[in-house]
């Protein structure tokens, strides 16, 4: 019995293009040709094509299949390796689904890491700062920020700070800082891990401090930055 290229592709449940590609990469031997030039495939080609198709469906790459050679025995080690890879992929997909559920439930931003859920009314600048700092903070401080965001309560001065114009005069800035200080002091007391200074001799500490300074300069206007400086002076964080 002999089949044409189209017939063997149909029998194997694949495409003409796939069969030709398997020839090109050396996975499937070329069959003999008739006098008219048409290829004629035999049972050995069909069995080989079925094996290739089966391995591809299981998730093996063509390179991995080529590495197995023509040995049609059960590729136990290759199967175990692929199974481990698939298990890792499944775990990753499950984590992604959990994260997607959190994003949908809390309507949070996709630029924030898992667990960091912004509080209601958080400004775009605050959310951007959290997203940036989440990349450079150590796990302990990041856990502290996560807990803060989960339990933080709003303060009347939050909106005033967000809407503070860049040309706000000194009296307005001083008054706002004075009224913000008790709220910030209470946060520092309830979440000491958040208030720890971003300083130290370790490279990661210096990177976090530089990143925070750069991000704040770009995200907040001069009046807001001055208010934050005044707040730090009032609560003794200099």
Automatic annotation (TrEMBL):
Keywords, ordered alphabetically: DNA-binding
UniProt keyword DNA-binding present: yes
Matching entries from InterPro entries are given as: DNA-bd_dom_put_sf, MerR-type_HTH_dom, MerR_fam
Q: Does the keyword DNA-binding apply?
A: yes
List where the protein spans the membrane: none
Database matches in PROSITE patterns: HTH_MERR_2
Q: Which Pfam families match?
A: MerR_1 (PF13411)
Q: Which domain of life is it from?
A: Bacteria
- The HTH merR-type domain covers 2-71
PANTHER family this protein is in?
HTH MERR-TYPE DOMAIN-CONTAINING PROTEIN, REDOX-CYCLING DRUG-SENSING TRANSCRIPTIONAL ACTIVATOR SOXR
Record's protein name: MerR family transcriptional regulator
Which organism encodes this protein? Pseudonocardia kongjuensis
């Amino acid at each position: 019995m002999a089949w044409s290229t189209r017939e063997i592709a149909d029998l194997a449940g694949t495409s003409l293009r796939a069969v030709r590609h398997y020839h090109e990469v050396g996975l499937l031997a070329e069959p003999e040709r008739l006098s008219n030039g048409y290829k004629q495939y035999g049972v050995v080609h069909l069995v080989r094509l079925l094996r290739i198709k089966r391995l591809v469906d299981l998730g093996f790459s063509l390179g991995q299949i080529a590495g197995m050679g023509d040995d049609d025995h059960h590729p136990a080690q290759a199967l175990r390796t692929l199974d481990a890879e698939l298990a890792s992929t499944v775990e990753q997909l499950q984590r992604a689904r959990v994260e997607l559920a959190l994003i949908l439930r809390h309507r949070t931003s996709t630029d924030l890491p898992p667990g960091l859920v912004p509080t209601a009314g958080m400004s775009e600048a605050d959310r951007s700062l959290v997203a940036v700092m989440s990349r450079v903070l150590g796990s302990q401080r990041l856990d502290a920020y996560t807990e803060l965001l989960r339990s933080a309560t709003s303060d009347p001065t939050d909106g005033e700070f967000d809407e503070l114009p860049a040309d706000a005069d000194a009296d307005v800035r001083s008054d706002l800082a004075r009224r913000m200080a008790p709220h910030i002091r209470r946060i520092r007391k309830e979440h000491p891990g958040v208030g720890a200074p971003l300083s130290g001799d370790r490279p990661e500490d210096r990177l976090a401090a530089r990143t925070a300074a750069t991000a704040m300069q770009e995200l907040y206007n001069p009046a807001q930055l001055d208010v934050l400086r005044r707040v730090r002076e009032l609560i003794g964080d200099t």
